[in-house]
Amino acid sequence: MKNFTFADAKPWAGHLGISVQDRSELIYSPLVWHMLGLQQTASGYGKKLVNPYKISFEGKKYRLYTTVYSNNGSTWFKVKGQKIFVN
Prior knowledge:
5% helix, globular, mainly beta
């Protein structure tokens, strides 16, 4: 697990973005329904889908969320009201 900081966040598409090289840099922390193989919405699409991973940022752990529409998804978390995308 890596502890990311604002120094790791680079401008990306009008927001800040962090590049994660490997899932080992994240914390695997699934919810019960993740472990049962269920999904949050019937369609699999949504604005704020809960991800089974967390990220350590500035010494705190943040849950990752994914926005999925059509065949495109973006993973992100919020720090003090600011979205930071994870690439």
